[in-house]
Amino acid sequence: MPDQKPEIPFHSPVMPAALDESTQIQFRCYKGISCFNACCKRADATLAPYDIIRLKDRLGMTSTDFLAKYTVPFEMDGDGLPGIKLKTTDEGACLLLDGDEGCSVYTDRPTVCRYYPVALLQIREKDGVGSQQNYSMVNEDHCKGHLEDRKLSIGDYRAEQGVAEYDDLNAEWYQLILKKKSAGPAVGKPPMASLRLFFLASYDIDTFRRFVLSENFRKTYVLPDEFYAEVEVSDLDLLRFAYRFLRQVLFGERSVEEVANAWEKRMEERKDMWAAQVESEVQRRTQAEDTKYSHCDDEESCGDK
Questions:
Q1: Which of 184, 203, 261, 297 is least surrounded by Cβ atoms within 10 Å, i.e. has the fewest?
Q2: What is the crossing angle of helices 205-212 and 225-233, to 10°?
Q3: Residue 114 contacts residue 161 (beta carbons within 8 Å)
Q4: Cα–Cα distance between 158 and 177 in angstroms, integer?
Q5: Which residues contact 273 (CB under 8 A, 6 or more apart)?
Q6: CA–CA separation, 181 vs 122, rounded Å?
Q7: Is the link from the previous residue into 49 a cis peptide, with omega within 30 of 0?
Q8: CB-side exposure of 126: number of CA atoms within 13 Å?
Q9: Is 287 left (phi over 0), alpha (psi -120 to 50) or beta?
Q10: Domain ranges in the chain?
Q11: For 152, which DSSP code?
Q12: Within 13 Å and on the Cβ side, how many CA atoms surround 183?
């Protein structure tokens, strides 16, 4: 059997012990260490929403094009909640790796890459509000950074790697995921339309913007003109709204006020359109049948009418 490209990058073993910011770790990574780039050559990078904004801006791409070129989808739970990972080469290397030079987008690298070899853990207590942020260590045999003579706290390592901005802008999204997982059967499996909206709002921010700026959206939700002016130009304002909107989509929270009877009005407006579509389809099929039989010269060539 020929070699097959892995659809999802390799899984990294994460130890389950929950650590905090005061925990001391021993680690150093630098160009010249014997294992330099080894982790990037067996990449397992799950992306959060702010990661995609940083990367698509760095590469000068729309979110839609970035997702198509650099990512692969996967399901985060049994209900098909969509997740995104960085795509790899046939050998498992990150597509953003620039040979021996290392990461080609280093200053805009994703959260999981910044944290390595620390793993971010979001823990939500049962029936609790919000989540608690803890950490764990990733231990892989190829990584020699653990043998370096440098110790520092996880808090200092976070500051060094610049993860605070990423955590702040992804925090509400992590909470949504945790709430979805902890609610389980109480929420039920989201309909396909909700899963599509989750994908757009979480990852494809440029397509989500077109959705929010659409006439139908404006007719459905009560939002000021200032809001539309802000989200038209600001990915971060739109991302913050996306989290708010997803609470309504996934959990039925009235986080965005709806226009009174908006749904009923839309259904009424679409009745004539649907009727016209049905009539058009009937006419198309009738014309197709007429065309079919107009080419029949005799009963044998036409078959049984």
A1: 297
A2: 160
A3: yes
A4: 23
A5: none
A6: 12
A7: no
A8: 1
A9: alpha
A10: 24-181, 262-294
A11: E
A12: 17
Q: What's this model's pTM, rounded to 2 decimal places?
A: 0.80
Partners of 236 in the β-ladder = none
How many of the other CB atoms lie within 10 Å of CB of 229? 11
SS3 267: helix
pLDDT at residue number 275: 60
Helix, strand, coil in percent for the chain, rounding step 5: 50, 15, 35
**For the chain (length 305 residues), average pLDDT per consecutive 10?**
46 64 95 92 94 98 98 92 95 93 96 95 64 87 94 97 96 92 71 94 98 95 96 98 95 89 56 61 65 51 46
Q: Which DSSP string corresponds to 15-50?
A: ----B-TT-EEE----BTBTTTTHHHHT---BPPHH
Query: How far is the CA of 167 from the CAs of 33, 63, 89, 285, in angstroms?
Result: 28, 20, 28, 56
Task: Check if the beta carbon of residue 23 is closer than 8 Å to that of residue 153.
Answer: yes
